[in-house]
Amino acid sequence: MSTPPLAPTDAQPAAASNCLDPLALERLRELDPSGQNKLIERVLAAYMKSLDRMLPELSQARGENLDLQVIRHISHTLKSSSASLGAMALAERCAEIETRARNQQTEGMETLLDAMLDDIQQVRMALTALAPTTP
Fold first, then answer.
1. Mind listing the pLDDT tens digit for each residue in 8-26?
2. Which pLDDT value is given to residue 17?
3. Which of 34, 57, 133, 134 has the most CB atoms at less than 10 Å from its CB?
4. Sign, CA torsion 104/106/112/117
5. How much is the pTM?
6. How many CA atoms lie within 13 A of 13 on its CB side?
7. Could you tell me which of 133, 121, 134, 130 has the C-alpha nearest to residue 29?
């Protein structure tokens, strides 16, 4: 018996579900077609946990004493993990932030970081809607 593809349902907010590439999610599902190993659940949990760990670090790296090293590291990490889950807009924004941080370009950084945080909230909502509920 095959597992149905991950697709938006009526219960999922349209804006949230649109921020994920269904093909990327399907590729993850193909790695565990029966769902027996709970790969999707484990990947989602790891991603959410990494957000919980990195966002406070990012908050501390912002402001008057902008720490571009921390910003570069966090944006690099989020770029890869977000892309693997199909959050391509977030991954692209992270790539831009990473490049700017590497090149010591601070102009407009706070605006980009705010936009990245907005993207993260949309991705969180979409992933939460996709997470299977356990009885």
1. 433 334 444 578 998 888 8
2. 56
3. 57
4. positive
5. 0.80
6. 11
7. 130
Cα separations in angstroms, 88 against 32, 78, 95, 120, 128 = 22, 11, 10, 11, 17
The pair of three-digit structure tokens given for residue 41, joined into one six-digit string = 């659940």
Rounded mean pLDDT, 99-128: 95
Tokens, residue 31: 């790695």
98-103: long-range contacts (C-beta < 8 A, 24 or more apart)? 98/72, 101/68, 101/69, 101/71, 101/72, 101/75, 102/68, 102/72
Question: CA 126 to CA 107: how far, in whole Å?
Answer: 31
What whole-number distance in Å separates Cα of residue 108 and Cα of residue 110?
A: 6
pLDDT tens for 51-62 read 999 999 999 999
86 closest CA partner among 2, 7, 1, 3? 7
Burial level of 123, CB count in 10 A (0-12/13-18/19+)?
A: buried
Location of structure tokens 């990473």: 98
